[in-house]
Design brief:
The chain is α/β, with parallel strands linked by helices. Helices cover 55% and strands 10% of the residues. The chain is globular, with a radius of gyration of 29 Å.
Length: 556
C-alpha cells in the first residue's frame, strides 16, 4: 500500500507534508541554501512552537538548524505530553519529555488549569492518565469548579444497538431547538465505528459528514455483497450477480460466469438469460460449476415464484404477509450462497467476524422495518446520495459532527459522546504488560522483572504476550537452547541474547502503544465542556475501566 502511494505521488508529480520536510532538510545540506535560510530567520529574536508534543525528528532537525543560537536561547515551546497521540505519523513525545536535554537553560512553567473541561468530568480521567509511566509529573486542575456531568451507560450487549439509552439521549439533544447541533460531537477511536451509527442516525433524519465515502454502509463490501445478490434474485439483474459471483464460488466461479457470457451471442441483461446460457455451456463443457449454477437457480426460482404469487394476490393482508416473508427469504438465500466465502475470509483474518456479524444483524433489522423490498432499496439509495454529498447534507435540518479522537484534538464541545471504544486493539489480558514492563525500562531491569514474573505468573505472562501478538516469544519458547530458569546463562549466548533483545523491543513498543491509547482516551474525555456520555459493554476497551467511573450505572 505504501509503495503504491509513493508510486502514485511520483507519477503525478505530487508531494505530501512529509515530502516537504524531507526536501527542505535535503536542501539545507547545501551550504549556500542553509546560509540563505538562516539569514531570513535571523530577523526573528524570539520563536514560539505550539503543540510541541507533536513535533517529530525531521521538524526538530530543521528548527535547530534554522534558528540562530541566540534565538534558540529565547525559544518558547508550548505543549502537553498527555496529548501526544500522533506517533503513527512520526511525532515523538521524547522531545517534550526530555526538553531539559535539548534546551538546558529552559525554564519550566506549568499551565495546569484546564479551562475547557468541567471539574466533574476532568477528575474522572485523571486516574487513567496518571497510570502512564512516561509523562511529566504535574497537577491537573479545572477552571470550571463543580461543573460538568459524566453520564455512564451500561449494557450486557456487545456490538451496535439502536435500542440504546445513550443514542436516544443523543437524538433528543440533536432535535432540541435550544441546543445548537455544532455543540454536539460523537467521537470514535476507529473510522469503522462510524458506519452503522451514521446509517442509523440517517434513519432518524440526522446526517453525519464522516469525511470518508468508503466508511458509509452502502459502500461497505459486506453490505454490497448481500444487497447486490438480493437485487439480482429479486430484480432478475445479471449485472448484480456478475459483480458478486466470486463471493458465491470464489474467483474460479467468477471466471466460469465470464466464460458463459463470452460464449453467448448477446450480452446478458437478466439472470434468467444467464441460466439459459449456463445450461448450454455446462452441457457441452466438462465444468465443475454446474451444481453451483443449479443452486443459484433454485434460490432464484423460489424468489420469483413467491414474487409472482404476491403480485397476483388481490388480498392486501395476504399480499403484505407474502411481501414480508419474501424479504426474509431473499436475505436467507443470499447469506446461504455466501456463507462459505465469509467463513473463509474470517478464518484467514481478511475480514473481522464481529464486524461481518454486526453488519448482517443490522441489515436484517433494517429489512424488517420495510413492508416490501423495493421500498428498502429506494430508501438505501436515497441515504447513500445524502451521506456521500456535502451539498445534500447541507440541505438537511439536523446534522452531527462525527470525528475520530485524532480529529477532535484541539476542539471542544458542550456535549460529547464517546462511542465505539472496543477492545479491538487493547486486550484486557495484554494490558498488564504495561504495568510489568513500562516503556523506557532499561534492559537490566527488564531482565530482573522478567525473571520475577516468569517464576510467579508464567501462564498469565504467556497469555499476555500471545494476546499482545509479541511474535518473538514463540521463537524463544520453541528454542531448546533457551533456558528461562537460568536466564543469565542463556543471555550469555549471542543468538539467544539477540532473540531476547528483540522480544524486549517488541514488549517496549507494545507498552508504549498502551500509553498512547490512554492519551487518546484522555483527549476524548477532555473535549467535553459540559457533558460527557460513555457507554460500556462486554467488549469495551479495558482502559475505559481505569477512569473513575460513576458508581450509578444506567441500564442499556
Amino acid at each position: 500500500m505504501i509503495k503504491k502511494y509513493q508510486e502514485l505521488k511520483h507519477s503525478n508529480g505530487y508531494i505530501d507534508f512529509n515530502d516537504m520536510k524531507l526536501l527542505l532538510l535535503k536542501s539545507m545540506q547545501v551550504p549556500e541554501y542553509l546560509q540563505y535560510y538562516q539569514q531570513i530567520m535571523a530577523r526573528f529574536k524570539i520563536a514560539v512552537i505550539d503543540e510541541f508534543q507533536d513535533i517529530d525528528n525531521l521538524q526538530w532537525k530543521i528548527i535547530s538548524q534554522l534558528l540562530s543560537p541566540e534565538t534558540m536561547q529565547h525559544l518558547i515551546v508550548i505543549g502537553d505530553d498527555d496529548q501526544s497521540i500522533y506517533s503513527f505519523r512520526g511525532s515523538n513525545p521524547q522531545f517534550i519529555l526530555n526538553y531539559k536535554k535539548l534546551l538546558p537553560q529552559a525554564q519550566k512553567k506549568n499551565l495546569s488549569t484546564n479551562y475547557r473541561t468541567g471539574e466533574k468530568i476532568l477528575k474522572r480521567v485523571i486516574p487513567l492518565i496518571k497510570k502512564n509511566h512516561v509523562r511529566l509529573d504535574k497537577d491537573l486542575l479545572s477552571g470550571k469548579k463543580d461543573m460538568g456531568k459524566f453520564i455512564l451507560y451500561s449494557t450486557k450487549k456487545s456490538g451496535f444497538s439502536g435500542d440504546s439509552k445513550m443514542l436516544r439521549r443523543l437524538v433528543k439533544q440533536i432535535n432540541d431547538p435550544k441546543i445548537n447541533n455544532d455543540d454536539i460531537a460523537i467521537l470514535v477511536r476507529y473510522n469503522s465505528s462510524r458506519m452503522l451509527l451514521a446509517d442509523w442516525l440517517a434513519n432518524q433524519k440526522i446526517y453525519a459528514d464522516i469525511n470518508n465515502i468508503g466508511a458509509i454502509l452502502q459502500n461497505n463490501i459486506v453490505y454490497r455483497i448481500v444487497t447486490e445478490l438480493m437485487r439480482s434474485l429479486w430484480q432478475d439483474k445479471f449485472s448484480y450477480f456478475s459483480n458478486q459471483a466470486n463471493r458465491i464460488g470464489f474467483r474460479a466461479y467468477k471466471d466460469h460466469t465470464e466464460k458463459v457470457q463470452a460464449k453467448a451471442e448477446d450480452e446478458f441483461e437478466t439472470l434468467s438469460q444467464y441460466f439459459k446460457g449456463a445450461e448450454k455451456y455446462n452441457a457441452t463443457t466438462n465444468t465443475p460449476y454446474k451444481r453451483t449454477d443449479e443452486r443459484v437457480k433454485v434460490y432464484f426460482n423460489s424468489v420469483q415464484r413467491f414474487k409472482k404469487q404476491m403480485e397476483q394476490s388481490d388480498n392486501e393482508v395476504t399480499k403484505q404477509k407474502l411481501s414480508q416473508s419474501l424479504i426474509k427469504d431473499l436475505y436467507k438465500a443470499t447469506t446461504k450462497l455466501t456463507d462459505r466465502y465469509f467463513d473463509y475470509m474470517e478464518e484467514k483474518n481478511f475480514m473481522s467476524k464481529n464486524e461481518v456479524n454486526d453488519i448482517k444483524k443490522y441489515l436484517l433489522e433494517e429489512l424488517e422495518k420495510y413492508p416490501n423490498i423495493d421500498d428498502f432499496f429506494s430508501a438505501e439509495e436515497n441515504k447513500k446520495e445524502i451521506l456521500t454529498s456535502r451539498v445534500e447534507q447541507g440541505k438537511q435540518d439536523n446534522r452531527i459532527q462525527f470525528l475520530s479522537l485524532h480529529q477532535a484534538k484541539g476542539l471542544e464541545f458542550k456535549y460529547v459522546y464517546l462511542y465505539g471504544l472496543t477492545d479491538k486493539e487493547v486486550d484486557r489480558n495484554s494490558k498488564i504488560l504495561n504495568s510489568w514492563f513500562p516503556p523506557e525500562m532499561p534492559m537490566d531491569k527488564f531482565v530482573q522483572k522478567w525473571k520475577l514474573v516468569y517464576n510467579h505468573d508464567f501462564k498469565y505472562l504467556e497469555n499476555a504476550l500471545k494476546t499482545a501478538h509479541v511474535e518473538k516469544y514463540r521463537d524463544i519458547t520453541n528454542n531448546n537452547a533457551f533456558n528461562p530458569i537460568n536466564l543469565d546463562k542463556t543471555l550469555n549466548k549471542n543468538k539467544e541474547f539477540k532473540m531476547f533483545y528483540t522480544m524486549y523491543n517488541e514488549i517496549e513498543n507494545y507498552s508504549a502503544f498502551i500509553e498512547e491509547e490512554r492519551r487518546l482516551l484522555y483527549v476524548g474525555v477532555t473535549r467535553a465542556q459540559k457533558e460527557l456520555n460513555l457507554r460500556i459493554a462486554p467488549d469495551s476497551n479495558p482502559l475505559v475501566f481505569e477512569l473513575e467511573l460513576p458508581k450509578k450505572k444506567d441500564k442499556k
